[in-house]
Design a protein that fits this description.
By secondary structure, the chain is an alpha/beta fold. It is built from 10 helices and 5 strands, in the order βαβαβαβαβαααααα. Helix content is about 50%, strand content about 10%. Helix 7 crosses helix 10.
Length: about 220
């Protein structure tokens, strides 16, 4: 499988560096580069890449709006958000917009390549460090939002165990960490996640996490 990638970042030097890293990998081809969000959307519409590496802070429309438009267009392109800081407030917006993964810009070349392949394979990539810090940042900004008067119907069909798994995923725990906490096999956690995606209609783990936060799941924990 050849993975076609678009790089969107207003830093020309960073784009060039990422293009070199990815271009030397077998099975990965950088098909386009964009200096702003609007260019990124247009390239995704015309080139139909498998993955777009999306900076969140760009001139014109930012990475969040660009992600929203790509998802709204129904494109198969997966969005991998590149961020500089753990506490980047734009990360949460990008998650809600439909991003499939997050990666720190200081990640190693090997990590970047693995992230691209992971998203291209249809999986989500939620860096636990980013997710945990993001949740802590949101909590520090003020009281948690009230539970919706009408909880998200997509959560209604989850079993108690599935709710526990989704809540831990939304807190940033990896499958291995969830398995250790619940004293089950990691394969069991993966099975729960597959069922969660099927029941909620989420595209991937990232969207399931967004549903958990918006739908009130984080406000009332089920006992472990």
């Amino acid at each position: 499988m050849r993975v076609r990638v678009v790089i969107a970042d207003d830093d020309a030097l960073l784009r060039a560096g990422v293009a070199v890293v990815l271009g030397t990998e077998d099975g990965i081809e950088v098909v386009g580069q964009a200096a702003d969000g609007l260019q990124a959307v247009e390239l995704c519409r015309t080139l139909l890449p498998d993955v777009v590496l999306m900076d969140v802070r760009m001139p014109g429309i930012d990475g969040i709006e660009a992600t929203r438009r790509i998802v709204a267009d129904g494109l198969a392109t997966r969005v991998l958000v590149l961020t500089t800081f753990h506490h980047d407030e734009y990360v949460w917006g990008a998650l809600r917009a439909g991003a499939g993964g997050f990666l720190l810009k200081r990640a190693s070349p090997e990590r970047l390549v693995d992230a691209v392949r992971t998203l291209a394979a249809g999986q989500a990539l939620l860096d636990p460090a980013i997710t945990r810090d993001l949740v802590s940042h949101l909590v520090a900004r003020g009281p948690a939002p009230a539970v919706p008067a009408v909880p998200d119907r997509r959560l209604a069909g989850l079993t108690s165990r599935e709710r526990q798994v989704l809540r831990r995923a939304a807190e940033g725990d990896s499958n291995a960490e969830i398995a250790e906490l619940l004293v089950v096999a990691e394969s069991t956690v993966k099975t729960h996640m597959k069922r969660i995606l099927a029941k909620t209609g989420a595209r991937d783990r990232a969207q399931a996490v967004a549903i958990a936060h918006r739908g009130g799941l984080m406000a009332a924990a089920d006992p472990l």
